[in-house]
Amino acid sequence: xxxxxxxxxxxxxxxxxxxxxxxxxxDAAVLRALDExxxxxxxxxxxxxxxxxxxxxxxxxxxxxxxxxxxxxxTEQLDVRPEHKVLEIGTGSGYQxxxxxxxxxxxxxxxxxxxxxxxxxxxxxxxxYQNVEIRVGxxxxxxxxxxxxxxxxVTAAAESVPEALVEQLAPDGLMLLPLGPHxxxxxxxxxxxxxxxxxxxxxxxxxRFVPLLPGQAREL
Length: 220
Known about the structure:
Blueprint: H1 10-22, H2 28-36, E1 57-58, E2 64-65, H3 68-78, E3 85-89, H4 95-101, E4 106-111, H5 114-127, E5 132-136, E6 149-154, H6 163-168, E7 169-179, E8 186-193, E9 199-207
Parallel strand pairs: 3-4, 3-6, 4-5, 6-7
Antiparallel strand pairs: 1-2, 7-8, 8-9
């Protein structure tokens, strides 16, 4: 069982959940996960007052923690079930992985920056989230040793759907990722793979994400 957060902003969290509902997030399991995960643990000290504001915030290594609505929307669209194994590409602060961990059986998250991965891993330990494995590596290669995955979420923008991730997606699986050039027009795209391995794509809302870069970052 997860440990209770220290310094919980209950009022801010209530307003945050109301905002998510008003913006159309209706899945009860997703709303429960958003309520259970203390976002204030995943933002820097300088941004504690904005932890539950509906905006993206900067974190280390030039990355960001996504806007809460985008996290909620992507999670809802991913349609995660309790028996699922989920791959996340781009751990960042670990907030999205923590949300997914409340919904899935297992989450594997790959981060190219060791600084971010170590910090996210420490947060998971503090909060008692034991079904999340955080790896340092190249997100474009995924985690082939743990494949296949029922669901894959990519939290950085790719210019095309990475073939290695498609191969790691299970039949009847679903992948969600932002597609588009860095600094240009990007859209969330839902990729479904049928039982025969055929793919179908559906374009969702417009977004802006940091680029999905190859390789493990040299920064420790």
